[in-house]
Structure formats: C-alpha cells, structure tokens
Design goal:
Blueprint: E1 8-12, E2 24-28, E3 46-49, E4 57-65, E5 74-79, E6 96-100, E7 110-112, E8 118-121, E9 129-137, E10 146-151, E11 163-167
Parallel strand pairs: 3-7
Antiparallel strand pairs: 1-2, 2-3, 4-5, 5-6, 6-8, 9-10, 10-11
C-alpha cells in the first residue's frame, strides 16, 4: 500500500475457509502490525481465497516486487494442486500461480483468486507449478521486477526433473 511499512503475506495451504483444503493467503498491512501481540489470520487486511477444493492455494507466496512498474509491489500466490484449463484427467495438478497487482487491492477484504490480475497455469498435469515463487530483481534491466516460478514435478520425458520459469515483468504481462 506504499506507506513505507513492510507488509506481511502468510500462506495457509491447508486452510478450509472456502473449500476443503482449498488454501488461503493472508495479507497484513504493516500499519496494522505496529502493535506487538497475537494477531488472528481472520483479522488480516486481505484474504485471498482458492478457486476450488484440494488446490492447496498459498502453498507458496511471494512479494513479486513491482512487476508492472507503477509504484506498488505485487503479490504471487501458488496453488500447486489446481488443475490446468481442460477437464482432462491428464491436466490434474498442473498448478497455478496467481498474480495480484498491488494497486488492485481496494476496500474489498476477501479476494477470490479467480479474479486475480493474471493466472499462470502449469504446462502439464502433475507439474505442480507454483511450488516455489521468488522475486528475481530486474534481470533484464528494463525497470520492471522479474520473478521466478518453480514446478517441482515438471516431467519432460526424463522423470520429474522439475523446471524453473523466469518471467519478465512488463507494463502488461502477455
């Protein structure tokens, strides 16, 4: 929220707020964490909810940096057991990564990830894209933060060798 205070993004991959084992991500804004003590997840400023059951949404979460270079940091949330786009059984557990632009956070506290700014989907079933997520800095020097997505079980005929994707930030991801 650009107030100069560090915010806290928490993963709760087994949370069943909306769906059984759907998972949820929770964001506390730094201004609301100024007091020490116990803070309940249900009191977070934002809750990012899963698209479906058994997705393990928020298996990984990360501050992406400012991938669209508009002055607001953006958020990455991985859902490793979300299926691909088809209803084919071979698409199961492809994994998804949700990109939430920081400037889109408004007054609505609960944010369904189906409405994320962008959704990246694993290439194949069982890839588990979103197992790991990380800010990569500005690798190509264009002024946009870049990020990495891990798919721990990516299998391209060699047996679950895994894959890491480097995604370049841009004013509008394609």
């Amino acid at each position: 929220d650009n107030d100069g205070k560090a915010d806290l993004l928490i993963d709760a991959r087994n949370a069943s707020d909306t769906f059984s084992y759907g998972g949820s991500g929770y964001l506390f804004l730094g201004a609301n964490l100024s007091e020490s003590g116990t803070h309940l997840l249900s009191d977070s400023d934002y809750i990012f909810t899963s698209e479906g059951p058994d997705h393990f949404t928020a298996f990984s979460v990360a501050d992406a940096g400012d991938i669209d270079a508009n002055g607001h940091d953006d958020i990455l949330i991985g859902a490793i057991s979300a299926d691909g786009e088809s209803t084919e059984k071979s698409d199961a557990d492809a994994g998804r990564v949700y990109i939430v632009y920081g400037e889109t956070l408004g007054d609505t506290r609960e944010i369904p990830l189906a409405e994320a700014s962008h959704i990246l989907i694993g290439e194949y079933g069982q890839d588990r894209a979103g197992t790991t997520l990380s800010r990569a800095g500005d690798v190509d020097g264009d002024g946009f933060s870049d990020f990495m997505v891990g798919a721990e079980q990516f299998d391209h005929k060699k047996g679950d060798e895994g894959k890491v994707y480097l995604i370049m930030g841009a004013a509008q991801l394609k």
